[in-house]
Amino acid sequence: MRAMVYRGPYKIRVEEKDVPAIEHPNDAIVRVTLAAICGSDLHLYHGLMPDTRIGHTFGHEFIGVVEQVGSSVQHLQVGDRVMVPFNIFCGSCWFCARGLYSNCHNVNPNATAVGGIYGYSHTTGGYDGGQSQYVRVPFADVGPVKIPDWMHDEDAVLLTDAAATGYFGAQLGEIAQGDTVVVLGAGPVGLIAAQSSWLMGAGRVIVVDHLQERLEKARTMAYAETLDYDEYDDIVVELKKQTDFLGADVVIEAVGAEADGNLLQHVTGTKLKLQGGSPVALNWAIDGVRKGGTVSVVGAYGPIPSAVKFGDALNKGLTLRMNQTPVKRQWPRMFEHVRNGHLTPRAMVTHRFPLEHIAEAYHVFSAKLDGCIKPLVLPDAA
Amino acid sequence: MTTPDIPSAYVRDKRPPRETTEQLRARIPGWGADLDPADRPSHPKLRYAPDTTGAHWDFPERQPETWPRERSVEHAFLTPVFGTAQPPRGLSGAIRKLAYRRYSEGRLAHWLLLIVGDRVDAWGSHLRSFATLRPDSPGTETGVRSEVTSGGLRSRRGRSDARHHVLDPVLVAGPWVAAAGGAVLGARSLVRALRR
């Protein structure tokens, strides 16, 4: 089969690999029909995530068709069209039993601090991912769901992570009716977080970024006010002015490890890998939220320490809430919202690349060329 | 409500909202559909519902371990299911195994060793690729062609992050240039030594 393969920081290519095999009775093999590149894939691409091995296939956002099932699989059949949450989870450990699917304890031998994720280094379990023609899907009775007939494939693939994470981020904010919500980052997660904030009763939603096409998307797709942080000497001061000097009731940090906005933080965190990522947005969130407010973190960071302003968080009495998204827990309600048009994930898709052009796809997304907001990968396109 | 020239932060109540509930509902599709915090999918955070996950086992059957699978020392045992992609090999594999065997996830040494293992893996793989019919090619593997096809200059015009994009070629090519320079210097020193 053809698969995207990591060759070192900033270098990937497509190689011929063996089709994955059933390794556990509850495995399925899925033929991937559509995949996406996630902003967090860029952390791997740039060499930020420890134990990213040469030869690894990335990709945790994908949908496909079941090609083969293990002997104990009961809920799926060959030929089913499925969407697969980015989390690999057993459904039976202490954490899964309580809905923390992203924190499963039975699927990642390499680390206890993070669950299993497809195509996301050995730090998350050492599973090859879905930017390929086939992928092994463990616990086929637990994770995948048949794609509803009415659902568009591009909505389905975005619900496997980016859209679900945006929606989850708004929930972590514990938004109350009338709250002012600031969303840092107008990427795919931030855009859905902004849409979701309205569903939860926000009175104002302000999205902060510096890329004009993304800010425009935040205005048109998420009906949000926007701030270009490049236009202000200090975006935190502007946030205070915008909120009558209270600060936002809720800030959703939807940027993560590769944040711009502070050259020193960006270079030390992202380029030189001296931190687990550049915590610029996280620090803006801490500074920009009101005292007693809530910071929701859904931007991804690596396991190495970062220079985060915990002193300010303590002194302001903040509630910091965060997790990798337990995707499947979001789906029933999100399906309703997508069907009703309240959430519009596929409106974010700007680029569609054949798998054979994966190196260009990563470069375009990484450097944010050509107005790229969300790139999809077509495994079988010529 | 006190005088309007004093911001909300300094008085008891917030100013009246810019838009009423009715205005928001009219303007925003689905506004308030998830208004009740107790009716949101991730509330409460811990919700005991083991019968809803699809699992039909108390503890999963164990996947066969085909090599001594590296694992965090914070785990009681090898998890019943695990990834089998890219088994550790060579020097990078030895470094990674040491990181897992010796240090918990709470130790910085664990992560730094894994990063060292990554770089050793990358360099070893690059060198090995030169002995194959498909050597690594930064020209194709970095996707740099898209700078031309996707408007590299146009896309960056006026962007503040463009200033650190110049570091990317240095990060990619720098180690190769340094290695080539070192090799040249080393060869020259060797030739000089042999001539003496």
Major beta sheet of chain B, specifics?
none
Rg over C-alpha atoms of chain A, rounded to the nearest angstrom: 20 Å
Helix content of chain A: 25-40%
For the terminal residues of chain B, how far apart are their CA atoms? 93 Å
Order of helices and strands of chain A: EEEHEEEEEEHHEHEHEHEHHEHEHEHE
Descriptive overview:
The complex is a heterodimer of chains A (382) and B (196). Chain A is of the alpha/beta class and 382 residues long. Chain A folds into 2 domains: 2-161 and 326-378, Medium-chain alcohol dehydrogenases, catalytic domain (Quinone Oxidoreductase, Chain A, domain 1, Alpha-Beta Complex); 163-322, NAD(P)-binding Rossmann-like Domain (Rossmann fold), CATH 3.40.50.720. Chain A has helices at 41-45, 153-159, 162-172, 188-199, 212-222, 235-242, 263-271, 280-288, 310-315, 327-340, 358-367; strands at residues 2-8, 11-16, 28-36, 61-69, 81-84, 87-88, 116-117, 134-137, 145-146, 180-184, 204-209, 225-228, 248-253, 289-297, 319-322, 349-354, 374-378. In chain A, the strands form 4 sheets. In chain A, strands 3, 4, 5, 8, 9, 16 and 17 form a 7-stranded mixed sheet that branches. In chain A, helix 11 links the parallel strand 16 and strand 17 (374-378). In chain A, helix 3 packs across helix 10 and helix 6 packs parallel to helix 8 (280-288). The model of chain A has no long low-confidence stretch (mean pLDDT 97). Chain B has 196 residues and is mainly α. Chain B has a domain at 88-135. Chain B has 8 helices and no strands. Chain B has helices spanning 21-27, 90-102, 108-129, 138-141, 146-149, 152-156, 162-165, 167-195. In chain B, helix 2 (90-102) packs antiparallel against helix 3 (108-129). The longest helix of chain B is centred in the C-terminal third of the chain and has 29 residues, at 167-195. The mean pLDDT of chain B is 94. The chains are: A alpha/beta (382), B mainly alpha (196). The interface between A and B is large, with 113 and 100 residues. Chain B: Residues 1-58, 134-160 are annotated as: Disordered. Chain B: Residues 11-25 have a biased composition (Basic and acidic residues). Chain A: Residues 25-145 form the Alcohol dehydrogenase-like N-terminal domain. Chain A: Residues 188-259 form the Alcohol dehydrogenase-like C-terminal domain.
